[in-house]
């Protein structure tokens, strides 16, 4: 301002948004299982979906989501693409040990769009005893691997199975081409 004359004036408008988890999480899950098909959305203050949050590499509109957990896992290097305000995490591995699993989920360009996810992890069920007296990790209704019959369902009944949690062990040897490249996670469904 020079005297009574305005020389320069800057106005800015801040849009407030919130990152939300739409998928209902169970109270607890067995150690070593996976949370499946987690849906996150960026919401406006009025409760509407912000469809402008859309990943498009061509014009340089990078809208991806990252997950950081206390325990080191491959998920931290994976970026999940937002599609018109929504982002789907096909599979999130839970740790092998008991306790509270917590992770921070955040927009990779707008770190203020973040949330924490916490879930109680309980010990995995022990293997069943068959009539012969030896332990086997395969239930009577689940074929053993040598039978050649594929099975990806959880052979142990858990309260989490109704929420799409499968007992599929993740491989720690997943090779990523780069930390910022997008990676399609495999889809698993319960049979």
Tell me what the structure shows.
There is one protein chain. The chain is mainly β and 191 residues long. The chain has a domain at 17-124 and 144-163: Immunoglobulins (Immunoglobulin-like, Sandwich). It is built from no helices and 10 strands. It has a 5-stranded mixed β-sheet, with no helix packed on it. A 3-stranded antiparallel β-sheet has the order 1-3-6, with no helix packed on it. Strand 7 and strand 8 form a beta hairpin. It starts with 16 loop residues before the first strand and ends in a 55-residue tail after the last strand.
Overview in brief:
With 191 residues, this protein is mainly β.
Topology readout:
Blueprint: E1 17-21, E2 28-30, E3 34-44, E4 64-69, E5 80-81, E6 86-93, E7 99-107, E8 114-122, E9 128-129, E10 135-136
Question: CATH-wise, what's the superfamily of one domain?
Answer: Immunoglobulins
Overall average pLDDT: 71
Tell me the distance between the termini.
Answer: 70 Å
CATH architecture of one domain: Sandwich
Order of helices and strands, N to C?
Answer: EEEEEEEEEE
What is the number of E strands?
10
- The global form is elongated
Helix content estimate:
under 10%
CATH class category of one domain = Mainly Beta
Structural class assignment? mainly beta
What composes the largest sheet? Answer: 5 strands, mixed
Residue stretches low in confidence (pLDDT < 50, at least 5 long) are: 128-143, 147-191
């Amino acid at each position: 301002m020079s005297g009574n004359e305005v020389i320069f004036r800057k106005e800015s408008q801040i849009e407030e948004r919130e990152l939300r988890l739409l998928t209902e999480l169970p109270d607890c899950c067995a150690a070593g299982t996976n949370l499946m098909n987690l849906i996150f959305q960026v919401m406006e203050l009025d409760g509407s979906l912000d469809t402008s949050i859309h990943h498009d590499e061509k014009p340089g509109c990078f809208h991806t989501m990252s997950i950081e957990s206390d325990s080191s896992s491959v998920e931290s290097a994976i970026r999940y693409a937002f599609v018109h305000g929504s982002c789907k995490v096909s599979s999130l591995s839970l740790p092998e040990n008991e306790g509270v699993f917590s992770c921070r989920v955040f927009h990779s360009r707008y770190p203020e769009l973040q949330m924490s996810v916490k879930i109680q992890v309980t010990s995995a069920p022990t293997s069943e005893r068959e009539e012969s007296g030896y332990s086997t990790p395969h239930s009577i209704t689940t074929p053993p691997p040598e039978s050649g019959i594929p099975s990806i369902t959880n052979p142990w009944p858990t309260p989490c199975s109704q929420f799409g949690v499968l007992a599929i062990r993740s491989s720690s040897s997943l090779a990523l081409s780069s930390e910022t490249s997008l990676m399609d996670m495999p889809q698993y469904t319960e049979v």
